[in-house]
Every structure is written in C-alpha cells, then in structure tokens.
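Format notes (please read before filing issues)

Several people have asked whether sequences and structure tokens are stored in separate files. They are not. Every record keeps both together, in the order shown below: the sequence lines, then the token lines. Line labels are part of the format and must not be stripped during preprocessing.
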Amino acid sequence: MVYNLMNLHKDSNKTDLNVISALLKISSLVLSKLTLPQIYRNIHEIISEIIYVKNIAIFLYDPVDELIIFDYFIDEKDKVVIGTTMPIGEGLCSYIIRENKPCLFTSEEQKDLHAQGKISHIIGSLSESWMGAPISNNEGIMGIIIIQSYSNDNMYDEHDLQLLSFVASNLAIVLQQRKFINKEIADKESLESGLTQIKNQNSALEDMMQTLKDAQEELVQKEKMASLGNLVAGIAHEINTPVGICLTAITNLHHQYKTLKNKITNETASDKHLDYFFEDVDEACTIIESNTLRAATLINSFKEIAVDQSSEAAREINMKEYIEEILLSMRPILKKSPHDVIVECPDNLIIETIPGAISQILNNMINNSIIHGLNNIEKGYIKITVVKEITSFIICYQDNGKGLSEEQVKMLFEPFYTTKRGSGGSGLGTHVIYNLVTSTLHGKITAQSEPNKGLRYDISVPVIDL
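Then the structure lines:
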C-alpha cells in the first residue's frame, strides 16, 4: 500500500514542514547506497523527528519457511539479538502479516484480541500503544515495521499510523532494490566464477596439447611402420577438431561477456540478458568439457602406442581364465551388444607372457569389432581361439562383420586410419595392437578380410622364459 504526502491531514498539528521534510528524507533513502542497517538507523532517526519512537522494530518475513527475522530492534524493555528468527505464530506481528494491513492497538485492544482468540498471546512486554505496518509490494509481504510506547503519555493515533504506513511503503521499495542489487552481485560472482573455470579449462587444454606434443615426439621415435608425414598429418587432423571447437566456444563466450559488460556499464542489462548469458556459459562449458575430454582420450591413446616393454611385468597365466577375466571387465560394453563372444582355449593352457599387452590387444580388437565390423548387424559373433606350439602360442581372432576391402586391409595398421572418421573413431586402435604385438610381445600379426566376410587376425607370440 503506497501513501502520498497529500494524503496527510492538513489540519493535524503534526502535518507541517517538519513532517513533510522528514517524509522526503525517507523517500530519498530509496536511491541511497547505504547498507540496510544504515538505512534502518536513518529511518529511526528521521521518524523520531515527528513521532515518539523510543521502541521500534523492523522484521523481515520469509514466506517459504514462514519465519520472522529480527533485522532491526530497539526496545527499552525487551532485548533481542539481531538476526534471530522466530516461526510465524499468533502474536501481533503474525496478525499484521495475515491481515496485510496497518493496525493500531492500545493495551486494552491487545488484550481483547487475545480474549477473542485472534492472537494466542502477546509476545514481549505489553505496550500501552502499539502500531505496525506491513512492508509489502505486488509480490507479497516482505516484512513488518512496528513502533510501540510503554507510557500513557505517548499514545499513537491514526495520523501516526498513516506516517508509519508511508515509511513501510518506502522501505518496501528499498528492500526490493536491495534484492535486485544482491542478485546482481551474485550473478556477477557467478559470472566471474564461470570465466575463471573457462580460463582454467583453457589452461588445461594447453597443458594437454603440450602433453600431446611430448607423446607425439615419443611416438615418432618408436614408430616402426608409418612415415613421419602421415603421422603428423593424422595428429593434426585429430587434435585440430576438439581444439578448434573449444577455441570457437571461448571466442563466442568472450564476445557475449563483453556485450553483457557493456550493458551492465550502461545500466541496460536485465535479468533476461543475464539468463541468456548464463545459458551461453553453460553451453560453452559443456562444449569445452566434452572436447577437452576428447583431446585427453586421444592423448591417452598416443601414450598407449609408446608402450615401454620394460614397464610391463611378465608372469605365468592360465590363458583361458585370463581371457575370461578380460571379457568380464568388458561386461558393461558386451552386455549392451547382441553379439556372442566364443572362446576356444584349453582349460589348462599355462603361458609365460606379458598379460597387460594381451589384455590391451583383445580389448582393442573386441571394441573395433563392435564399433566397426558388427555395427548395424542384428546378430554377430566374435571367436577367440588360442593354441600352444613348442616355442610360441597362437591367438586367432575373427568376427563375422562387414569386413574390409583389399585397400582397407593394407591401411589397417596405419596410425590414424579409421573407417569411422567423424563418428568417434581415432584410428589408433589397430596401430596400438600392432605395436603391442611386435614391440612388446616380439610377435607377428597378420589380418585377412573381404567385404561382408568378416575380419580375422592371426597373432603368433613367442613364449617368455621366466
């Protein structure tokens, strides 16, 4: 409820230049940059010029939790710690909140309210004259301001209540303004946090690129089958896509940030502008995160290529049990696939080898079959056969997938060659297999395939003497 200065009774002995001056001072607080405690103190001092105000309280109201918060409290009899909360009940303040209108009560009228059951009890000391006005706007009640007198010499009247209502209406504007200011501060902090996160991700991306560069140099030194030109071209192609996407996202977000900053500086920014910007921040973070993870995955693949033989521990394993352990570890992938995995291996086949390399080889082969060979095939199979010879053991791996052409078979072990470029394939899977077989296990691997007749690998690995 908004009160105009012209609503004040001109015949009242309190409606003079001092009253009008005091009310203008209160109105001017709406545009001040003072803190809320400072505004409360100013209001108290200004009202004291025109009304007896020895006891005053300003409460904020939380409609969600139905709590009354003591935000300003000066009383000659009762003492309350600022910030104390109290659940809404049946006292005079709760009565004002429920009725949402200014009220004026004498001590007898307060007792009558209690007797009529309109309030359950009188909170605090009983005052001779009590008046309160809701601090509200179109969205609802934000709080309440009350003034009370414990002396019969200072009794309030309707004119005083009207003045208090005018103060409450202006205080409602102040609180709403502070709400917008606090939201702006929170939004700014969130914006700065988002920008910091983007900068950190950009720094992490630069670190990943440096790591990739180091991995590339190591890969070049150990590469035994691909030319340096094809290797560099493949790396550049694979890493350029996620890096380019991240760069585009950061550039666009920086542009949006400068636009919003200008709007804020020119005081033309609105909540909608902030909402749009936060949507852009969220989208950019998602894009950068997914593509940095893509780059990280690619880097890890490069590291796998440069497997150091001395870092792999050799031990004796039961080959069939170990293959079953590999399949068990791949269960999250295999259980989503309609294809069967068949293992033909003697139960008691004990092999002296490097298990980590065997695990990576079969892992990559199975993944390649599911992603490439058996893709869009309703029901397929993967068959792994292991036999022992005198000084070596043979692993035959085959699927009944779509197969490869003669030209594709020739390129199969080349780094970065993939039939799924642009759809998530890095082209490193079979190259990793080749390096594990030839460099780590000192074995040999061949591939055979025809279109629509599946793909077969034959791997021969010498047995290690422990």
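For reference, the curators noted about this record: The mean pLDDT is 80. The chain has three domains: 5-181, 182-309, 311-462.
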